[in-house]
């Protein structure tokens, strides 16, 4: 379907940073406040520099979603030259981005259709839904059909995160203070997953080797993978990401598992020294499982 434009915020992460330059995708930047200074995510501060600042100042960054007025300004420009707008956002449980976008879209009712979608994901998961939208765009026969296809992809996005600094999880109400204290005493680190739009502890491990084992076990449950990304806190490949990539190559011969640095929006939730694995399961495998049931 021609002339559809995709909008998202800077929390969406892509293994290929040049992706958005090649397709009709507009990214509205979040604002990140670190040590009292405000930066536009991905514009004023590179991701690696932002993570280093967060780690240095030892304080949780404040992440402010684009405002209703900022989304309105973007939509107002796009409705003049688009047959439809798909606006994809991080989980509304973790961000105000979706709420602000919905309010802005309502102000432009009567123009081209604007569909505001809660990805129920964050970071690379949100980015994978954007990538899926771009891939399906040309094949879409109608705007409503396109929206249904995208919403169907949401349930196929899975993610796990191994977190080194659990203080961030306490500040973001992901873990209770008693669990954080006990984890610190025993040297136990959590593995988190996204569950219905929320970050929740899935398992606990003592070593990075155990963390990699659990992450590989998690993804090995899938018969086929449409998209995948390893998230880390450096531009260059870390040793942990390399080991994880090697292990996944054995489990999924021929499947590409790119690595990429995550940004301050995710660091504000899980800290600046985590490792993540995000996958988009093949649609055919989901349909096959449903038929088997």
Describe the structure.
By secondary structure, the protein is of the alpha/beta class. It has 2 domains: 4-30 and 65-154, Rossmann fold (3-Layer(aba) Sandwich); 157-292, Hypothetical Protein Tm841, Chain: A,domain 3. Helices cover 40% and strands 25% of the residues. The protein contains 11 helices and 13 strands. The chain has helices at 47-57, 68-79, 97-107, 124-137, 143-154, 167-171, 177-186, 208-219, 239-251, 264-270, 283-292, and strands at residues 4-9, 25-28, 31-34, 37-40, 62-64, 84-89, 114-118, 157-163, 189-195, 198-205, 225-232, 259-261, 274-281. Helix 3 (97-107) links the parallel strand 6 and strand 7. The chain is globular, with a radius of gyration of 19 Å.
